[in-house]
C-alpha cells in the first residue's frame, strides 16, 4: 500500500523508476521487529532543565503604578542632589 | 491681548484633555490671584471652582482603580485572623493551591510560582506573588530584589505614592487636612465627593477620608449608595473586612452597580472565601449578563485555585463579549503553550501584537512560541526585538534565559552556555538559569561546578523541584547517598508526583536498608 501511495504522489512520468528504486532499498534494509523474547530498556535518570518561561504581560494599572513609583524616586533623587549642591556651594 | 482665554475655562480644557499638571498649575495661579485661604471663599465661586478643579486634577494624576489595587504585606498575611477556617477543606481556599484538580499541565511542564501555582499569563498588582500558606514559608521565601514584599501594606506602595505626591509641591500640601472643617464640607455633597477622592487617592489619608465619608453619609440620611461604597473602601484599606462587607451589601441593596460587586468580591477574597466570591460574581452576572469584569473576576479566582480548565472557559467567555481583552488573550495563550500547543498560543500572541501591545514580554513569548511551533525564521528576530525593548535588567535576564532554551533546542551547547551566563550577568538571582547552567556543566563533566551552581539555585528558589532533584542525582552518582536523600526529599516536597524523584528515593532506601 505505501508504494502505491508514493506512486500516486510522485510525478506521473517517473513512477516506474521511483518504485523500482524503492523496491531495491527495501530489499537491502529490512526492519527487525522481534515478536518473541525479552525487550529490555535501561532507565537512566537524566538531569532536568528548568522549563522555558513565558513572561506574563503587565496590566495597565501595574504599569501606571510602576511608572509613578519611578517618577517619585526620581524626584527624591533630584531633590537630594539639589540639596547636596546647595551644601557644596554654601 | 484680546485673544487670551479665560484662565478657568482653559484649566477645564486642560483637565478634559488629561493635561493634569498644566491644569493644576493654572488653578494655582487663579487661586493666587483671588483671595485665597486654606478653604475656598463661599462668596467667590470662581476660587471655589478652581480649588475643586485643582483637587480633581491632582487626584487624577495619581488615580489607580481601587478594584485593581491590592498588595499584601508580610504582617497582614501572617497575622491574618480574618480567614474563617485555619485548616480549610481542599477547593475552598486560596491558600492551598491544591494539586491540579482539573488536569491542567503538571509542574514538570509548567513552571510554578513560590506559592506553588502555575505561572500566569498576566500580571496584576495582586498577582505579583501568591500568599504563602504558613509563617515558615513566608519567612523562608528568599529576599531577592525581585520578590521582596513590604513588611506591611501600610509601609508599601500606597504610602510611598502618598508621600511622593507631596514631594512634588515644594510649598507643602495643597490642602492641609488637619485644618479642614469636615462637617462643613459634608454639607456640600458636590464638593465633598471630589474632596473625598482627593483625600483618599492623593493624600492617602484613609482615616480622614473615612471621617468625611461618615459625616457625608449621615448628611444624605444614608440614602446615597456612593458614600456607602466609599466607606466600604476605607474599611477595606484599614483591614476591617466585616465592616466593609456590611457597607457594600447595604449599597447593593440601594443600587446595584458592577463596581460594588467587584469590591465586595475583593473583600471575600481577602477573607479567603473564594467560593462565596464566585457565587457573588454569578449573582452579579444575573443582574448584568455578560459583564466582562465579572466574568474576568471568576476566571481569576479559578486560576488562583489552580482550576485551569474552568479558568480558561471563563476567559473564553470574556473574549466572546470583548475580543480585545488583553488579560484573557494572554492567559489563554500561555495555557495553550504549556499544554503543548505552541502554534495555537502563537495565534493568540499574534493577536495581541495586532492590537498594538508592543513590549519585551510579548516579543519574548512570540519568540518562544515560534520556536516550539517550528517557525524558525521568526524566532531569533522576535528575541532580538524583545532584547531591544527590555526596560530593566530582570527582563533582559529572562529573555536571555529563554534564548538559552532555543540554543539547547538546536543543540548549540556553547551558545546555550553563553545565554545562561548572560542571564546571570543581568540578574544574579535567576535560579532557573543557575540550574540549567549546572546541567550543561554536568554534561561537560564538571561535577564540582555543577554542584555549586545547583546549591545556589536551590537556596534561591526552594519552591522549584529541579535543582533539588538534580542535586540528588549528582550526589547519588558520586556516592554521597546521605546528601542525595536529603535533596530528593526536598524535591518530593516541592513536586510530590515526580516519578523520577520517587524512583530515586526508593532506590536510596533500598541502599540504606542493605547497610
TrEMBL record, chain A:
Pfam families: BBIP10. GO terms for biological process: cilium assembly; receptor localization to non-motile cilium. GO terms for cellular component: BBSome. InterPro entries: BBIP10 (IPR028233). Residues 1-20 are annotated as: Disordered. Signal peptide: none annotated. This is BBSome interacting protein 1. The lineage of its organism: Eukaryota, Metazoa, Chordata, Craniata, Vertebrata.
Automatic annotation (TrEMBL), chain B:
This is Tetratricopeptide repeat protein 8. It is found in: Cell projection, Cilium membrane; Cytoplasm, Cytoskeleton, Microtubule organizing center, Centrosome, Centriolar satellite. Keywords: Cell membrane, Cell projection, Cilium, Cilium biogenesis/degradation, Cytoplasm, Cytoskeleton, Membrane, Protein transport, Repeat, TPR repeat, Transport. GO terms for biological process: axon guidance; camera-type eye photoreceptor cell differentiation; establishment of anatomical structure orientation; establishment of epithelial cell apical/basal polarity; establishment of planar polarity; fat cell differentiation; inner ear receptor cell stereocilium organization; multi-ciliated epithelial cell differentiation. Part of BBSome complex, that contains BBS1, BBS2, BBS4, BBS5, BBS7, BBS8/TTC8, BBS9 and BBIP10. Interacts with PCM1. Interacts with CCDC28B. Interacts with PKD1. It comes from Oryctolagus cuniculus. TPR repeats lie at residues 360-393, 431-464. One of its GO terms (molecular function) is RNA polymerase II-specific DNA-binding transcription factor binding. InterPro entries: BBS8 (IPR028796), TPR-like_helical_dom_sf (IPR011990), TPR_rpt (IPR019734). Pfam families: TPR_10, TPR_12, TPR_19. The lineage of its organism: Eukaryota, Metazoa, Chordata, Craniata, Vertebrata. Coiled coil: none annotated. The BBSome complex is thought to function as a coat complex required for sorting of specific membrane proteins to the primary cilia. The BBSome complex is required for ciliogenesis but is dispensable for centriolar satellite function. This ciliogenic function is mediated in part by the Rab8 GDP/GTP exchange factor, which localizes to the basal body and contacts the BBSome. Rab8(GTP) enters the primary cilium and promotes extension of the ciliary membrane. PANTHER family: TETRATRICOPEPTIDE REPEAT PROTEIN 8. One of its GO terms (cellular component) is ciliary membrane. Its main location: membrane.
Amino acid at each position: 500500500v505505501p508504494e502505491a501511495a508514493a506512486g500516486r504522489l510522485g510525478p506521473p512520468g517517473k513512477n516506474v523508476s521511483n518504485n523500482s528504486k524503492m523496491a531495491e532499498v527495501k530489499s537491502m534494509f529490512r526492519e527487525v521487529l522481534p515478536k518473541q523474547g525479552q525487550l529490555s530498556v535501561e532507565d537512566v535518570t537524566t538531569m532536568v532543565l528548568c522549563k522555558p518561561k513565558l513572561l506574563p504581560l503587565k496590566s495597565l494599572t501595574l504599569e501606571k503604578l510602576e511608572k509613578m513609583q519611578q517618577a517619585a524616586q526620581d524626584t527624591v533623587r533630584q531633590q537630594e542632589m539639589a540639596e547636596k549642591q546647595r551644601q557644596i556651594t554654601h | 491681548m484680546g485673544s487670551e482665554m479665560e484662565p478657568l475655562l482653559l484649566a477645564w480644557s486642560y483637565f478634559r484633555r488629561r493635561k493634569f499638571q498644566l491644569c493644576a498649575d493654572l488653578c494655582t495661579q487663579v487661586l493666587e490671584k483671588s483671595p485665597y485661604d486654606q478653604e475656598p471663599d463661599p462668596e467667590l465661586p470662581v476660587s471655589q471652582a478652581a480649588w475643586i478643579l485643582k483637587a480633581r486634577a491632582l487626584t487624577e494624576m495619581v488615580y489607580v482603580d481601587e478594584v485593581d489595587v491590592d498588595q499584601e504585606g508580610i504582617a497582614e498575611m501572617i497575622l491574618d485572623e480574618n480567614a474563617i477556617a485555619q485548616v480549610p477543606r481542599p477547593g475552598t481556599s486560596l491558600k492551598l493551591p491544591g494539586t491540579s484538580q482539573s488536569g491542567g499541565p503538571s509542574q514538570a511542564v509548567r513552571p510554578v510560582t513560590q506559592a506553588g501555582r502555575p505561572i500566569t499569563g498576566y500580571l496584576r498588582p495582586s498577582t505579583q506573588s501568591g500568599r504563602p500558606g504558613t509563617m515558615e514559608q513566608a519567612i523562608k521565601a528568599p529576599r531577592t530584589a525581585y520578590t521582596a514584599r513590604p513588611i506591611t501594606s501600610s509601609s508599601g506602595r500606597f504610602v510611598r505614592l502618598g508621600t511622593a505626591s507631596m514631594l512634588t509641591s515644594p510649598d507643602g500640601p495643597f490642602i492641609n487636612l488637619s485644618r479642614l472643617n469636615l462637617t462643613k464640607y459634608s454639607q456640600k455633597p458636590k464638593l465633598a465627593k471630589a474632596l473625598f477622592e482627593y483625600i483618599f487617592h492623593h493624600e492617602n489619608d484613609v482615616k480622614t477620608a473615612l471621617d468625611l465619608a461618615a459625616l457625608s453619609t449621615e448628611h444624605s440620611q444614608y440614602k446615597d449608595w456612593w458614600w456607602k461604597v466609599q466607606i466600604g473602601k476605607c474599611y477595606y484599606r484599614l483591614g476591617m473586612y466585616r465592616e466593609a462587607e456590611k457597607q457594600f451589601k447595604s449599597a447593593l441593596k440601594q443600587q446595584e452597580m458592577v463596581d460594588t460587586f467587584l469590591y465586595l468580591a475583593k473583600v471575600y477574597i481577602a477573607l479567603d472565601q473564594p467560593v462565596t466570591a464566585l457565587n457573588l460574581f454569578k449573582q452579579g452576572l444575573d443582574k448584568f449578563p455578560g459583564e466582562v469584569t465579572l466574568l474576568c473576576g471568576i476566571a481569576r479566582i479559578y486560576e488562583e485555585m489552580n482550576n485551569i480548565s474552568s479558568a480558561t472557559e471563563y476567559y473564553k467567555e470574556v473574549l466572546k463579549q470583548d475580543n480585545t481583552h488583553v488579560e484573557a488573550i494572554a492567559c489563554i495563550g500561555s495555557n495553550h503553550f504549556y499544554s503543548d500547543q505552541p502554534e495555537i498560543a502563537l495565534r493568540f500572541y499574534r493577536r495581541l501584537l495586532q492590537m498594538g501591545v508592543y513590549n519585551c514580554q510579548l516579543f519574548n513569548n512570540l519568540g518562544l512560541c515560534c520556536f516550539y511551533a517550528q517557525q524558525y525564521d521568526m524566532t531569533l528576530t522576535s528575541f532580538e526585538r524583545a532584547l531591544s525593548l527590555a526596560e530593566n535588567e530582570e527582563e533582559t535576564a529572562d529573555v536571555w534565559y529563554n534564548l538559552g532554551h532555543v540554543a539547547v533546542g538546536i543543540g548549540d551547547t556553547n551558545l546555550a552556555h553563553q545565554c545562561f551566563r548572560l542571564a546571570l550577568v543581568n540578574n544574579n538571582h535567576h535560579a532557573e538559569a543557575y540550574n540549567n547552567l549546572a546541567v550543561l556543566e554536568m554534561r561537560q563533566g564538571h561535577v564540582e561546578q555543577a554542584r555549586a551552581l545547583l546549591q545556589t539555585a536551590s537556596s534561591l528558589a526552594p519552591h522549584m523541584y529541579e535543582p533539588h532533584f538534580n542535586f540528588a542525582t549528582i550526589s547519588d552518582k558520586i556516592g554521597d547517598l546521605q546528601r542525595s536523600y536529603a535533596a530528593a526529599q526536598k524535591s518530593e516536597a516541592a513536586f510530590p508526583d515526580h516519578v523520577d524523584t520517587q524512583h530515586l528515593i526508593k532506590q536510596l532506601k533500598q541502599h540504606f536498608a542493605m547497610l
